[in-house]
Amino acid sequence: MRNGTKHMETGPVIGEGWQKFATFLTHAGRQAPDQSGSFVNMPVERGSTVVFPSVEAMEAQGEHAYGHRLVYGAMGNPVQHRLEQVIAALEGGAHTQVVNSGLAACSVALLAFLKAGDHLLLPDSVYGPTRRFALGMLARFGVETSFYPPHADEATLRAHIKPNTAVIFAESPGSHTFEVQDIPLIARMAHGAGARLLLDNTWGIGAFQPFTHGVDVSIQALTKYPSGHADVILGSITVQRPEHWQALRRAAIELGACGAPDDCWLTLRGLKTMAVRLSQQARSAYELALWLESRPEVAYVRHPALPGCPGYALWKRDFTDASGLFGVELVEGITQDAMIAMLNGLNLFGIGVSWGGYESLVLPTSGGLTRSHKDGLPKGAAFRIQVGLENVADLKADLTRGLDGLKR
Ligand SMILES: *Cc1c(COP(=O)(O)O)cnc(C)c1O
């Protein structure tokens, strides 16, 4: 798949899918002006205690603790609840719980739907800290975890499901290796086995509508594109069915999980520009991915919208757009040390974890990944690129200089 121009002619239109959210995101969560006028954005209200005019009034609020009424800041705050409404609408769900990080969104959701004696199936490509949570804390509380290949077909999935499988978790595309998963198939298998399907939908925010594909619980690291400016840590868990909301809301209250008002406010603000940021970042990333495929130093580009990427057909079937994060695998003969020297020498790409902000980043991925099924690992030196809002020609020039200087 080295002919970049060919992909341009026949490939998907990248960056336009995000435009369908532009109007919604620009208006969602805004203040309705009253007669005396009001600011466009809602104010931040910070608080722990909520005071009432009488004990009776307070107790009346307490009766709604599993809904969104407030008696205490740990149960949420007005900005958090506004953000929850926007995320629920964006994901096509009915209810959202915002929590203090994307990882907390994964762990709170797992704790809400698992109990001692249950079995959990994780995709081998799952976000590393989710794997660590399952093998650490969930194991200590009597939940058994095993890993299925992200591309498992029906027979392979069936072989991994046990009588006590209560949750099948999915993440699509997978962290670092970008396998797109067949979510409708996994949903059918999960529901047939009496299990629930939880999806980490961080990469696909908006571009993958989880509930139309059979997902029960959709998780987002709002830290990434929704907040979008590398200055917030926040997560969300969205469900559609009332019984899932009961279980999730109960877990959030029992765990004291909530989102700080300022972080929720910054995320609401970030969402206003998410469609235009993502349109640009997706386009630039796709252009760089196509160009990198044609470079002799590159063996393989892991970007779901490239026909050579595992799961391309599923991406085309189920997603309306791509985001700006992808992987690059160098040809054999380029050492890890040479790649690291190249990454260190880039001027416009920061070196760091996380993604979804306005700035470009790179991160080595070879050597540090854990997989139970070894065929999922990159063979050569590999790194991940998060494409920011810089001029794409400048980014290409920086990468060109880096690749030209690589020692073979
Ligand atoms: C970053 C990330 C998380 C965790 O989000 P934090 O807010 O950083 O805790 C979870 N899942 C995926 C896929 C991520 O990329």
Layout: helices, strands, pairs:
Blueprint: H1 4-10, H2 22-27, H3 55-62, H4 78-91, E1 95-99, H5 102-113, E2 119-123, H6 128-140, E3 144-148, H7 154-160, E4 165-171, H8 183-192, E5 196-200, E6 217-221, E7 235-239, H9 242-255, H10 261-272, H11 274-293, E8 298-302, H12 312-318, E9 325-330, H13 336-344, E10 350-351, E11 361-364, E12 382-386, H14 392-404
Parallel strand pairs: 2-3, 2-4, 4-5, 5-6, 10-11
Antiparallel strand pairs: 1-7, 6-7, 8-9, 9-12, 11-12
The chain binds pyridoxal-5'-phosphate.
Pyridoxal-5'-phosphate is lined by residues 101-103, 106, 127, 171, 175, 200, 202, 221, 223, 233, 235, 354.
Protein name: Cystathionine beta-lyase
EC number: 4.4.1.13
Keywords: Lyase, Pyridoxal phosphate
Strand content: 5-15%
- Provide the structure class: alpha/beta
In terms of quaternary structure, the protein is: single chain
Would you state the CATH class of the largest domain?
A: Alpha Beta
Mean pLDDT: 93
Number of strands: 12
CATH topology of the largest domain: Aspartate Aminotransferase, domain 2
Total separate domains:
2
Kindly report the name of the CATH homologous superfamily of the largest domain. Type I PLP-dependent aspartate aminotransferase-like (Major domain)
- Kindly report how far apart the N and C termini lie: 22 Å
Low-pLDDT sequence parts? 1-10
Q: What's the shape?
A: globular
Q: What percent of the residues sit in helical stretches (DSSP H or I)?
A: 25-40%
Strand line-up across the major sheet: 1-7-6-5-4-2-3
